[in-house]
Amino acid sequence: MFDLDGVLVDSERMWDEVRQAFAARHGGTWPAAATRAMQGMSTPEWATYLVTEVGVRLTPAETASGVIGEMAERYAEGPPVLPGAVDVVREVASRYPVAIASSSPPVLIKSFLAATDLTDVVPVAISSEQAGAGKPAPDVYLLAASKLGVDPSRSAAVEDSTNGLRAALAAGMTVYAVPNPHFPPDPVVLAHVTVLRDLSDLPAALASAPPGE
What we know:
By secondary structure, the chain is mainly α. It has 11 helices and 5 strands.
């Protein structure tokens, strides 16, 4: 189970830039805790947060539509795919069923899959919008496992953020962290997962210790 933002695409900073600029244009004031608070939230959750906590003077629906529209424009120029990410997904998919379990909206997940020719390689791609609750709730991981027809306890998740790691742990999965250098995860959470130097280390890690064994 791959997270998208921060694991396969270098988009955490893009989301932050777009949300901050959008909030500034619509009457919001950015609290220091806002960036980390929204990492992992589903679209309805972060859109509501921007209205209630940041002070955006729009409805949550209008806020979500505006931010996602700007992100889609940036993705149209080509998703910021991290080096080696596509090769890793293909290598893992040659041995295991794979899925994407992301807080990104479906339109951006589909854009990534199409741009990288991974649509046929990744049979399940779930947004937390479809799961009911964003990370750190485990919902998106549990739904992805269900769609793949696999037991969460025999599955592995790859994450970069504190809330993502907590979600995968709560789902009962083997969890690998590729820490985001711009938004480092909580060391307390990292103590409960396997930390990888780089995503390229994932295939070897899975080979040496298959999930659930």
